[in-house]
Amino acid sequence: MSEFLKFAFEVLSQVVYNIVTWLVAFVKVFITGWGEYFVIFRTYFPTLSIAGKILSVILMVILAAIPIGIILLLIRRAILNYQLKADKSDNAALYREIGRLNKQVLDLMEEKNSILALKVNAMGGTERIPYMGASALTDDVIPTVGNVTSGEAAAKAAPAAASAILSGSSDPKKAPVVRAVVSSDPGEKVEHRFPKLTLVDQKYADFQYPQYNNDITLEEFVEGYRLFAASQMKLYYTPEIIRRFVAGMASSKLLILEGISGTGKTSLPYSFSRYMENPATIVSVQPSYRDRTEILGYFNEFSKRFNETEFLRALYEANYRPDPTLIVLDEMNLARIEYYFAEMLSVLEMPNEDEWVLDLVPTAWEGDPEKLDGGKIHVSTATWFIGTANNDDSTFTITDKVYDRAMPIELNERADAFECEPQPHCDITAEHLEYLFQKAKVEHPISDDTLDKMQKLDNYLVTRFKLSFGNRIMKQMYDFIPVYVACGGTELGGMDYIIARKVLKKFESMNVTFVRDEITGLINYIDKTFGKAEMEDSKSYLRRIQNLY
After folding, report:
1. What is the rounded CA–CA span in Å between residue 92 and residue 84?
2. Which residues pair with 384 in a beta bridge?
3. How many CB atoms lie within 10 A of CB 456?
4. Whose CB has fewer CB within 10 Å in the chain, the N or C terminal residue?
């Protein structure tokens, strides 16, 4: 132990010696060494040339400036610390508060730029805005270089800004809002937080509705559309595809059009809506869609204005129209449907149509659109949502949750072109279309023989594959098959399509390699139960699944 203490003493002594030596050297270099420096200076200075004397003086001044600068910095630091602590306040907290306020200023500036961008988009502006003052939040004129430099914008901005600041009102109904022109008269401006929806109110104030055809049958309706699409729009579809589309409308408010690119998935609902003279709204789904605000919009607390979308406008306008309204979600599986469309899926499941409402804002304000009830929008029963979907590496898989609620329609081939006489539009109300659906269920109910065969197939699937039709699929089947028959199809054809797209599709989420041989047995059972010439859609689908593994 004594040896260790001796070792530690010598090491620490050397460390202390080196530190003291460094401090002494530092003091000698900048303070006590000046006597030696001046001796050397006086020795060489008389013998130096003029240039040498000037350089020697500059060198001595630089050497003198270093310690003087260090001393001044230390003195200044000491004075600053004394001043900051003189009021005995917590300056660290003050610095944090200043930083927080600076961050809030940056956030408000970013919010302001977003609002101004919305304003430019809404007004269709294409010029680059050189200045964004308070007038941009209160005027309907996009600032330009001319009116900014002329001082008009500044003159208009000052009173508006002063009024907004001095009012200090806490009433949200009196908060400053962005103005929207809702009149053809450029001088008349009304403040609204839903400018697009207010324009819809004005559009239908004096709207002349067409004479609706309430005598047409489903078969005439389907064939009329096929001829209209061919003669007026040069789009060709087989009667089978149109049959499935109309029967799908009878069984679900959400239809999913699947298939390879170029088969007319988007053109089908677009041309169908033109046939009924109520053009569809096409919403291009973006990969960034995450929640309901992407399609419904959101209320901007800063500008006191609702950021409206085309989806919201179409949803609102459907409350004015008695004819069917189609809203197309183009490439709907570029984002996860169960994220951005979740609330709509839940609302459409409500058995009472009076409960088909969506909350937009918590309270109603004076001047809100007429069809909003307490800040809520009603989803009209005359509205159908049509989604188009491609299955490739750039898209998400559509989950069973969505498939169970929707009616999938496959378009994997193009129909042959044909010539026909020009077919006129067909104005039909959604109420009459629903009446035709109900009439088809009465006139073409599913036969007992078909129901018995369906029950046997259900028992087989439950026993061998743990698959079942489920109550929702059964309800859709009772709605789909009668309308499919009324449109010119057969009962087994409608059942074949439902089983293939709604029941057997669940094999895709199973480990088919373990039930591969069982699929062959299922195909043989379908032949035995329904006949070898029937249920070709289901059997071809099973063979395709079997060949994948």
Report:
1. 10
2. 326
3. 14
4. N
Q: Are 519 and 512 in contact (CB under 8 A)?
A: yes
User: Tokens at residue 422, please?
Assistant: 């020009």
Confidence of residue 86 (pLDDT cuts 50, 70, 90): low
H helix runs in 379-511, sequence order: 400-405, 430-443, 448-465, 470-486, 491-498
Structure pTM?
A: 0.66
pLDDT at 542: 87
Question: Which residue has tokens 């964004």?
Answer: 132
402-411 CB burial, b ≥16 within 10 A, e <16: bbebbbbbbb
pLDDT of residue 38: 79
- The DSSP-derived string for 215-266 is S--HHHHHHHHHHHHHHHH-----HHHHHHHHHHHHH-SEEEEE-STTS-TT
Report helix, strand or coil for 150. Answer: coil
| Pairing of β 305-307 and β 298-300 | antiparallel
Name the token pair of 104: 């809030």
Please choose, from the candidates 511, 499, 513, the residue with its C-alpha nearest in 3D space to the C-alpha of residue 468: 499
The structure tokens listed for 48 are 């130096």
Bin 43: left if φ > 0, else alpha if -120 < ψ < 50, else beta: alpha
Residue 87, sorted as left (phi over 0), alpha (psi -120 to 50) or beta, turns out to be: alpha
Give the angle 290-296-300 at the CA atoms, nearest 5°.
95
Here the tokens at position 27 are 């003091």
Mean pLDDT, all residues of the chain:
81
Percent of the chain with pLDDT over 70: 82
Task: Report how far apart, in Å, the C-alpha atoms of 207 and of each of 202, 210, 310, 321, 538 are.
Answer: 9, 10, 20, 10, 48
Helices then strands, each counted (H, E), the chain: 22, 11
* Cα end-to-end span (Å), the chain: 78
Q: Are 334 and 287 in contact (CB under 8 A)?
A: yes
Q: Judging by beta carbons within 10 Å of its beta carbon (0-12, 13-18, 19+), is residue 468 exposed, middle or buried?
A: middle
**Which is more confident, 376 or 40?**
376
Residues in the chain: 549
Any long-range contacts for 116-123 (C-beta under 8 Å, 24+ apart)?
118/178, 118/303, 118/305, 118/307, 119/178, 122/180, 122/195
